[in-house]
Amino acid sequence: MAKPHCSINFRPPEPQKRPSEDLQGLYRSVSESAIMLISLSHQFVFVANLKSASSSIERALAPFAEFRATRTNWGKHDDLSTISKKFRWIGRYVPPRDFFVFGVIRDPVDFILSLYNFHTRPGFDGFAHSSKGMSFDKFWRDWCSKSWQAKPQHRRFVDKHGKFQISHVIEMSELTKEFPQICSKLDVKATLPKLNVSPELLSRADLSGEHIRQIEERYAEDYAFIKNRPRAF
After folding, report:
1. Most-buried pick from 43, 62, 73, 111 (CB within 10 A)?
2. DSSP secondary structure string, the chain?
3. Residue pLDDT, tens place only, 164-193
4. Strands (E), 40-158
5. Pair 154, 131: CB distance under 8 Å
6. Which residue has the higher pLDDT, 210 or 14?
């Protein structure tokens, strides 16, 4: 039986911007592209991770979602615990256990490399988060130690309030194979575009063995999560 579809615009009114806010908005739009989605009609929650094809998934599945947070201060990067707290009223319409909750996680070495490469883009020139001209050693030592973007990925998929349960986490290397299965599970037809690709200035081959060792050590819990990631199929 086809599921009913409703349309709800979730766009708070825009406050009048000062010039500095326009620059901040430009930075946010270039920097933070992952977008959280919630669908009542198809009963899914997409928890958006950074640099893990989230822009592509959002573009593909947004037509089926009633809630699409497009700015950071509206919750586009919310982890599952924050989503659970903000949208606790959803339980009046659909029990949280009935939602298919999913996201994408990436090998931490590739994740850190993508953050480095992405932040060399001209759109970051003049901002503190620019990595243009920065050595990877300084990026790893200083940038990754300070930025929220470099936090362990697995934390995004845990609801500390105990309402939502993550259903499936796609390992990014399996995305092409598993996205059609996700669509089948959600009873939607969607094609995955390729968006927001980072320039590849550095690759694994450019990293020292010590850098790789340090990344693997710092993100050991991410690696353990990937090995035993929640799977629906």
Report:
1. 111
2. -PPP-------PPPPPPPHHHHHHHHHHHHH-----EEETTTTEEEEPPTTSSHHHHHHHHGGG-SEE--SGGGTTT--HHHHHHHTGGGGGTS-GGGSEEEEEE--HHHHHHHHHHHTTSGGGTTSTT--TT--HHHIIIIIHHH-GGGS-GGGGG--TTSS----EEEEGGGHHHHHHHHHHHHT--------SPPP-S--GGGS-HHHHHHHHHHTHHHHHHHHT-----
3. 999 999 999 999 999 999 999 999 999 998
4. 44-47, 67-68, 100-105
5. no
6. 210
What are the extents of the domains in the chain?
A: 20-227
SS3 state of residue 13? coil
Say which range, 69-78, 143-152, 200-209, has the weakest mean pLDDT. Answer: 69-78
| Cα separation, 65 vs 215, whole angstroms | 35
The Cα-based distances of 123 to 6, 129, 168, 174, 203 in angstroms read: 36, 10, 33, 30, 21
pLDDT tens, position by position, 66-118: 998 877 777 778 999 999 999 999 999 999 999 999 999 999 999 999 999 99
Confidence at 34, pLDDT banded by 50, 70, 90 = low
| Whole-number Å distance between alpha carbons of 86 and 101 | 16
